[in-house]
Amino acid sequence: MMEQSVDIEALNQQIFVDSAFVEKLNEETGRTIVGQKYMLQRLLIGLLTKGHVLLEGLPGLAKTLAIKTLAQATDANFSRIQFTPDLLPADIIGTMIYNPSKNEFTVRKGPVFANFVLADEINRAPAKVQSALLEAMQERQVTIGTDTFKLEQPFLVLATQNPIEQEGTYPLPEAQVDRFMLKVKITYPEKEEEREIIRRNLNDDSFGSVNKVVTLEEIMKARKVVRKVYMDEKIEQYILDIVFATRNPENYGLEKLKPLLNFGGSPRASINLAIASKAMAFLGRRGYVTPEDVRNICYDVLRHRLGLTYEAEAENITQEDIIKEILNAVVVP
Predict the structure, then answer these.
(1) What is the CATH number assigned to the segment(s) 37-202?
(2) What angle do CA 23, 270, 52 make, to 5 degrees?
């Protein structure tokens, strides 16, 4: 036991040092983004865990600006794809172009070849376009013609979708949404934050250009350190209990949830909940995961992985309501 506690102490010190860049990054993004700390924290978790993030929120909540600012502060290549109904897969991954002078085809790479790819309003493009992007997300490679190209690391897809307009949109299929590590719901800023937003927009001098405060090498190193964060077996069991309660709620005294759920979280839910909890601990500059880390990130990991029945929808029960019931029922270690 003594040896283990010494290891955790050493790990704490290492992570305290290796996570120092997070403060610089928060400070730099805060010069451009007012508030939205929850969203920026979730984007950082995605960056630290190789996890793609789906942002859902009303227009004008700085989703695009936050992603662009984070890319600029981390010295990363950034590309933005505006999804529209007439978009083609080749517009994302690239295509073969015929060169008449050389009498051969050459590859023209698409915007997916970047460190940060912003898929703006992803639900506006048809399924085949969404599939082209989601394949790149899963395989981290792209095939154009007969050639396969590895995507550069870090590679992070940050997709946005607007929840209010359904006309002319193509909702992401449940199986494809599962490839996003987190689904983050963005809300309106507080009144004082919005006052500051107004003032900054009326005074252009307030907006300085974003400085590069973190290198890609530091991000890649931090990803390895996040994996080293200590997770006790009791925390592992806690994560498993939460995910299994979404599949078999009756085993956890939650019989009332059974008719409300079509399906629960997949094994991806367990994996992502574990690694995201480690990232939460890293951002908290700790070398070990607490139950509070798991509870904190649980909604973002699970909300897009639970299938509701018509009965749940008829009663206006949301995924968040079900997750709350599960967290209240599952025994905390």
Answers:
(1) 3.40.50.300
(2) 50
Buried b (16+ CB within 10 A) or exposed e, 117-153: bbbbbbbbbeeebbebbbbbbeeeebebeeeebebee
In the chain, where the domains are located: 37-202, 229-329
Beginning with the edge strand found earlier in the chain, give each strand of the sheet holding 116-120 in spatial order. 78-82, 116-120, 156-161, 53-56, 182-185
CATH topology classification for 229-329: Helicase, Ruva Protein; domain 3 (1.10.8)
Name the token pair of 306: 């639970």
Instruction: Please report, as a single letter, which amino acid is at residue 227.
Output: R
Three-state SS letters, the chain: CHHHHHHHHHHHHHHHHHCHHHHHHHHHHHCCCCCCHHHHHHHHHHHHHCCCEEEECCCCCCHHHHHHHHHHHCCCCEEEEECCCCCCCHHHHEEEEEECCCCEEEEEECCCCCCEEEEECHHHCCHHHHHHHHHHHHHCEEEECCEEEECCCCCEEEEEECCCCCCCCCCCCHHHHCCCCEEEECCCCCHHHHHHHHHHHHCHHHCCCCCCCCCHHHHHHHHHHHHHCECCHHHHHHHHHHHHHHHCHHHHCCHHHHHHEEECCCHHHHHHHHHHHHHHHHHCCCCECCHHHHHHHHHHHHCCCCEECHHHHHCCCCHHHHHHHHHHHCCCC
Higher confidence at residue 8 or residue 312?
A: 312
Task: List pLDDT tens digits, range 71-97.
Answer: 888 878 888 888 888 888 888 888 888
Mind listing the pLDDT tens digit for each residue in 107-144?
888 888 888 888 888 888 887 888 788 778 888 888 88
